[in-house]
Please model this.
Amino acid sequence: MGVIDSQWWSMRWPWMAVWLLTAACFAVVAQYGAARWVAARRRRRLRDGRMFSGLCIYLHETRVEAVADILGIPKADVNVSHETSVSTGFGLFGRVTVGGRAERDTSTQTRREYWEPNTPMKTIRLIMDRLRERDMVVDADLATEQLFLTAALADQLRGTEAGGTPLTAVRGTYVSVSGLFTVRRDGEDVVLHARYGTGEPHPQVKITCEGAWVREEEFRVDSFSAEEEFPATCLGRVRTWNGTTGELTLDPISVFQ
Model:
């Protein structure tokens, strides 16, 4: 009987090894896929509360149009249609009121179409929606030092925890930075600074807003002192990182307060 068992095992073990190896590979792939799905759901859930709100204090219209072109968002006017329903006292089926009078109700629908200008302010909302749909924007919270990577950047930086990934590692993608900023004038331009992280020199984000695109009616720069901080969110791209000064420079597209 032992001879038979050993012969059976010698014939079967290679196939069992193949099946075990296949099962192990399948488990690894399933675990990786589940982790990616959970991470994507977490990013979407966390970003739901990070959409722009409040006043737009800076909007670089030329950059908005350029980004809209890249994302395939039309610059032309948008066709808008509205349907209205109107009810009257006569309809197909009658009904008797309390006084004994027969009434019938009916409703008619009217469709009205018109062209509405697609302004840069409307386009920036479409841009944010499109960037989030395509997972093309990194969210950075300077106050909590949280960084929410895109899937592509997370793959590129795999092995580094998101909490330990420096903002300076973000390259080649859009970034939405939220924090407490100070403001000062630099000639015609307006410069925002926000500190984040630790180290010496203390790292900070620098955003230079061209004076022509600052929305002075919503953002009265001269009413802020050099020490006063205010919350803001900037959509832009990383231009440079200066390790000597600890300064990360963003090219802004829009800033919301």
Q: What stands out?
A: DSSP finds four helices and twelve strands in the chain.
